[in-house]
Amino acid sequence: MSSIPKIVILGAGYGGILTAQRLQKALNYNEADVTLVNRHEYHYFTTHLHMPAAGTDSIEHTRVSISKLIDEFKIDLVKSSVQEIRTQQKKVILEDGTLSYDYLVIALGGEPETFGIPGLDKYALTIRSINSVRLIREHIEYQFAKYKNENNAQEHINFVVGGAGFSGIEFVAELADRIPALCKEYDVDPSMVNIYNVEAAPTALPGFAPELVEHAMTVLTKKGVTFKFGVAIKECLPGGVILATGEEIKASTIVWTGGIRGNRLIEAAGFEAMRGRVKVDEYLRAPGHENIFIIGDGSLMINPEGRPYPPTAQIAMQQGECCAHNLVAAIRSQQPKKFAFSNKGTVASLGKGQGIAVVGDKTYKGWTAAQLKKVVDMRYLLIIGGIPLVLKKGRFL
């Protein structure tokens, strides 16, 4: 029986792919067997999905084959869906088999959090995967076609986006940019199209200074977005939404971006979780399990101010690097290192040529922030795939 420890990584998102890449660099030959499990053969950039969802960019710019990111002589890639995690048996049940592990990394990503709002899970679309993005894009185009073929029924060109965080704001910005081209293609009067962004909180884009948020709202209002702040969606229907105020917005397209929870498999495995997120220790380990690490959307870490870190790509990447270091330390009986988040800055796109950004103690808006967004995207491509990936997938214009 092999004495080589088995490491299983579940999920090839930002955290999972960085963990795998750092392990293949750090581990010596035959020091560990590493298996990366992912339901697709590609890794995709969740922070970029709002663009192909709206139809302003190609899906191919949003994904890359995992085989181009890892050394398959060092990392065994298994394409499968995880069905169950059995911590007592140290096994992971897949749709087509079983994997045993000595060390487990849970990097399964998140799921839409509907907060129990009736109808959201059934009637709303979500920006969470390549397939969901493809569906949204085709659905939007179909609504324009139906508008012209069904006596100009207004609900077909009314769009409701629930949530005004990063995903919601970036999506409405891209959608607003796409509307003129769609109107021209389908011979629709642009003044008839309505984009509603509904947010239960009193404002948008938490974490940004008020003046930057105000700038964002001004830019997007000029693009045709109508904001409804401080009002929650009470119910989602096949043909629209009902707000907490009682107002009904008729719309054939509802896109929900109002929250993310951890993967339900985490709770099903018996971990103590809040909305699917586990409060991991300072080394990224699950409580009571020194051999199980949870990173990305499934992990809950508290910042120095006493609030949870938001589940961003930036923190998932840094967790992946730290997780790999601590796995190697565990195998070599060395001291693990504590996770310390280093904020590289925050950037939100507001559509073509527009954005807002905070880097250190400096703020940026407009064209400069839009260029910073591209720099952030290309930096990630450089980290995971080097210059060839930047040249292939990067957006320079």
From TrEMBL:
Protein name per its UniProtKB record: NADH dehydrogenase
Keywords: FAD, Flavoprotein, Oxidoreductase
Lineage: Bacteria, Bacillati, Bacillota, Bacilli, Bacillales
All copies of domain FAD/NAD(P)-binding, residue ranges: 6-320
Gene Ontology terms describing biological process: aerobic electron transport chain
GO molecular function terms attached to this record: NAD(P)H dehydrogenase (quinone) activity
Pfam families documented for this protein: Pyr_redox_2 (PF07992)
Domain of life from the UniProt record: Bacteria
Required co-factors: FAD
Organism name: Paenibacillus borealis
Gene3D superfamilies the record matches: 3.50.50.100
Family listed: Belongs to the NADH dehydrogenase family.
